[in-house]
Amino acid sequence: MEQKGYSVLKFVKHGNKYHVVMDYRQGILMYDRMRGRPELVKEQVMGWILQIAELLENHHKCERQEGYGYVNPYGFLITEKDEIYLVDMSDESNEEIKKRAERRQNWSYFLPEGKVIGQKKDIENDIYGFGKIIQFLFAQTDIYPALSKAEEYAYLKMVHRCTGENSKRTFQNFEQIRQKIPKIKRKKKILSLLFAGSLCTAALIGGLGNALARIGTEEKKEVRMKNVVKASEEDAEDDSIEIWRQQDEIYMEAGLVYFLELADYAKALEYFEKVSEAHEQGRQYRMLCRYLLGKEHKEEKEIGKVLQELEESKEALKLQYMQSRIRIYAGFEKEDYKEKIIELGEKILSATELKRTDQEHFREEEVRTYLEHAYEAKNQMEKVLEQYQEMEKKDISFERKREWMYRWAEYLAEHGDLIGAKGICEKGIGTYGGSEKLCMIHLELLCRQPDIQKEEVIQKAKQYNMLFPGILESEDYIKIKEIYQL
Question: How many angstroms separate the CA atoms of 266 and 272, rounded?
Answer without folding.
Answer: 10
